[in-house]
Structure formats: structure tokens, C-alpha cells
């Protein structure tokens, strides 16, 4: 594993973020999802974002879980503003973006998310312009979506560049992860999926778990789903949640922390992830909140 991590670091360090002509950043939009709750999706998203930032990437974390937003709780940060205040024009984008551990920029979820789909044209233009002000300075924007596949989550996933699917070795989690990819692929065949196995006893269990999903996706959906990596079942993760400190910061030498670093390195080294297919946040919002004609 150490040799693999070192080779990944060399490959990643040789890459420079690419920008479109004119100097405007085309931030790659990543949604993190899961077929069911309880698989550690939000914890993964937070620590993955921190790992990318530690590797020199500019990252914005957006808590997009409409019903169970909890990124700020995992960080032990009290967010003064959230999306609601931006939509009501009670605060601008600079005010609603908070800083978490290691100065990670994030937008708290909660109230306001469900109002996005009923914005007037004027309010939608204002929202897009505000988000674009900060998004255009980012390399990656991570959206932590709700578990399962609600209508709102579906819109997030099908509008993004990449979908990172988090599962565990539990049979129900495996089944639900495959079901999510099946439904999303039927709606948006071009979307890129990458699979993460969380809470794995060891590498063998993680590989066996990923193979079950990947083989089914290949056979029945003609879909190639790369296995990005796994996170070990680690008591330090539970301890970090109780302390409200990300495990990669609270226990940097833990198995889970080393795994999340390898995952981030694997993602950056996977190729073709520096350029957005949806043309940055403006393209994403246009697809995400597109009006029905």
C-alpha cells in the first residue's frame, strides 16, 4: 500500500489544475451519494474534501442533504448562516460560506434547500450569480446529498460530473447501491460513477464487496464502475464523531485516515478529472434547477 500511495503522489503532484480559456475555473462538480442511510456517506465526504484540500486543491463543500444536513455537526462548527439566508437575500455568498477545520470552505444545509425548486426567474439568476462568485475560484465542489434516491437527490446526481457511491459490505447496502446506479444510469447514461466501500474489515472484504456491484453493473447495465478504494472499519471514526472532529484530523495516523488519503490520491490520479463536463457551477445549476417547459 505504501508503494502504491507514493506512486500516486508522484502522479498527482505532476498535474496542474486546468482552466478554460479566459481564466475562469471550471470547477468539477462531485456528488457523493449512497443507496441507504447509515453507511458513513457524510463522514466520508467531509474527510475526502479535507484530503483534497491538503493536497493543494481548492475545494468547496456543500451540504445538500435536504432532510438530514449534518456536515457542520461532524465538524463541531455552528454555522451562523445557511442557504436560506442567501435565498432570502439576508446574507451574500461571502457570509454564508463558513470555514471548517483546516480552513475548509463549506455551505451549511438545512432550511432553504427545498425552496430552490420554486425560485422565481429573478431569484434563480441571483442565486446562480452569487454561487458562481466563489465557485469560479474552486477546483472541486463536493455536494453531500441525501441518502437514497429522492427526486431532489436525483436532480443533484444527474446534473454533476461525477457521482461517488458510498456503500458498506452489508447486503442491503450493496443492493441499494446497485439500485441507485441502475436508476440514475437509466436517466443519465453518461454519468461517471466511482465506488467506495466503507467500514471494511480488510482489503479483501472491500474488493469482494466492490466486485459484486461492479459485476452486476457490467452484466446488466453495461456500465463500468471503477473501484476507487475503501475505508477500514476503525474505532477512531466513531470516536471522532463523538468529539465532532473529522477523523483525518483527530487521528491522522489511524487506518481510516490513511485510507482516505489514498482515496483522494486515487481520485486525483484517475485522469480527466480536472475539467468539468457540465461547464462549472453555472452549467450544473442550469441542469439541476432546470424549469420544465
UniProtKB/TrEMBL annotation:
<dbReference type="GO" id="GO:0009898">
    <property type="term" value="C:cytoplasmic side of plasma membrane"/>
</dbReference>
<dbReference type="InterPro" id="IPR050625">
    <property type="entry name" value="ParA/MinD_ATPase"/>
</dbReference>
<dbReference type="InterPro" id="IPR033875">
    <property type="entry name" value="FlhG"/>
</dbReference>
<dbReference type="Pfam" id="PF13614">
    <property type="entry name" value="AAA_31"/>
</dbReference>
<protein>
    <submittedName>
        <fullName>P-loop NTPase</fullName>
    </submittedName>
</protein>
<dbReference type="GO" id="GO:0005829">
    <property type="term" value="C:cytosol"/>
</dbReference>
<dbReference type="GO" id="GO:0016887">
    <property type="term" value="F:ATP hydrolysis activity"/>
</dbReference>
<keyword id="KW-0547">Nucleotide-binding</keyword>
<dbReference type="GO" id="GO:0005524">
    <property type="term" value="F:ATP binding"/>
</dbReference>
<feature type="domain" description="AAA">
    <location>
        <begin position="28"/>
        <end position="186"/>
    </location>
</feature>
<dbReference type="InterPro" id="IPR025669">
    <property type="entry name" value="AAA_dom"/>
</dbReference>
<dbReference type="InterPro" id="IPR025501">
    <property type="entry name" value="MinD_FleN"/>
</dbReference>
<keyword id="KW-0067">ATP-binding</keyword>
<dbReference type="GO" id="GO:0051782">
    <property type="term" value="P:negative regulation of cell division"/>
</dbReference>
<dbReference type="InterPro" id="IPR027417">
    <property type="entry name" value="P-loop_NTPase"/>
</dbReference>
Amino acid at each position: 500500500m505504501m508503494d502504491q500511495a507514493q506512486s500516486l503522489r508522484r502522479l498527482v503532484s505532476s498535474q496542474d489544475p486546468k482552466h478554460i480559456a479566459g481564466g475562469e475555473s471550471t470547477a468539477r462538480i462531485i456528488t457523493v451519494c449512497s443507496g441507504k442511510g447509515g453507511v458513513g456517506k457524510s463522514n466520508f465526504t467531509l474527510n475526502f474534501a479535507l484530503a483534497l484540500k491538503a493536497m493543494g486543491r481548492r475545494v468547496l463543500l456543500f451540504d445538500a442533504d435536504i432532510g438530514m444536513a449534518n456536515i457542520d455537526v461532524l465538524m463541531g462548527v455552528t454555522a451562523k448562516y445557511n442557504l436560506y439566508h442567501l435565498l432570502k437575500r439576508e446574507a451574500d455568498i461571502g457570509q454564508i460560506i463558513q470555514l471548517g477545520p483546516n480552513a475548509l470552505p463549506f455551505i451549511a444545509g438545512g432550511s432553504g434547500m427545498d425552496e430552490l425548486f420554486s425560485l422565481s426567474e429573478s431569484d434563480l439568476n441571483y442565486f446562480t450569480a452569487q454561487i458562481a462568485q466563489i465557485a469560479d475560484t474552486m477546483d472541486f465542489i463536493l455536494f453531500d446529498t441525501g441518502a437514497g434516491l429522492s427526486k431532489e437527490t436525483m436532480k443533484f446526481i444527474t446534473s454533476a460530473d461525477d457521482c461517488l457511491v458510498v456503500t458498506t459490505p452489508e447486503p442491503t447496502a450493496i443492493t441499494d447501491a446497485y439500485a441507485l446506479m441502475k436508476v440514475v444510469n437509466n436517466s443519465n447514461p453518461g454519468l461517471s460513477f466511482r465506488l467506495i466501500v466503507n467500514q471494511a474489515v480488510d482489503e479483501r472484504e472491500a474488493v469482494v464487496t466492490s466486485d459484486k456491484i461492479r459485476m452486476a453493473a457490467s452484466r446488466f447495465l453495461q456500465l463500468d464502475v471503477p473501484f476507487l478504494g475503501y475505508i477500514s472499519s476503525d474505532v477512531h471514526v466513531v470516536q471522532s464523531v463523538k468529539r465532532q472532529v473529522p477523523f483525518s484530523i483527530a487521528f491522522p495516523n489511524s487506518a481510516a485516515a490513511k485510507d482516505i488519503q489514498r482515496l483522494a490520491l486515487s481520485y486525483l490520479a484517475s485522469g480527466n478529472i480536472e475539467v468539468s463536463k457540465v461547464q462549472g457551477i453555472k452549467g450544473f445549476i442550469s441542469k439541476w434547477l432546470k424549469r420544465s417547459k
